[in-house]
Amino acid sequence: MPTLEAKSISVSYASVKAVHDVSFRVDEGEVVALVGSNGAGKSTILKAMMGLKQLAGGDLWWRDHSIARIPAANRVSSGIALSPEGRRLFPRMTVLDNLEVGAHTVKSVASRRRTLDLIYGLFPRVHERRSQLAGSLSGGEQQMVAIGRALMAQPKLLLLDEPSLGLAPKVIAEIARVVETLNRETGLSIVLVEQNARLALRLSHRAYVLERGEVVRTGTGQELLDDDFVRQAYLGV
Ligand code: ATP
User: Of 94, 171, 180, 200, which is least packed with CB atoms within 10 Å of its CB?
Assistant: First the structure.
């Protein structure tokens, strides 16, 4: 059964249609990738899923009901969390305070503590740097904190926007390992938005390729890695 389903959604910025008639689903425990070049509409779809952009058409279902008109804060409490493109940390706050920002919907102190321990286990460097100002961290460390902050909301569905952007190969490998571990060991469903198509397809159970706001290909990660069109357009082979 789909955890989240986008039914023919469209999203506009003023008169510009950024996403047009896009349908996709995320099943329980799946990693689903949205790949495509700059401006294809990937981030806009995540914003619409999160309630940060309103739909111009179509519908968005979460479990057994439409969330199209539900505000972002309520979507967080119902189990959806976003790690945004560009990380958006508070640079003058400590790493720990940034993480705590993500936990405002979680009332139980013991439960917050358990999630914090999970994040520190996944990212030992975040633990080491927990008292430092977030702005003093490397790009890779900041990305880890941004993912950690989203996890602090204890989501059932994690939306990751360009987690590999601008990072060194070694750090990308570490983030990829965490995506796999989270999915495998906690059953978390993940939507992964990436310009790095090879990485995204390797990590995902299924994927959708977007061009100019429309889905042009879909399949399992492996099917798309083997697809001639995808290989030529996105994998450079
Ligand atoms: P990127 O990786 O560059 O973020 P993307 O696939 O995530 O690419 P979007 O950011 O969703 O693409 O952009 C989709 C389209 O919407 C593009 O044509 C973009 O120029 C336009 N767009 C995005 N944000 C805005 C905005 N705030 N105002 C106007 N147009 C926007």
Answer: 180
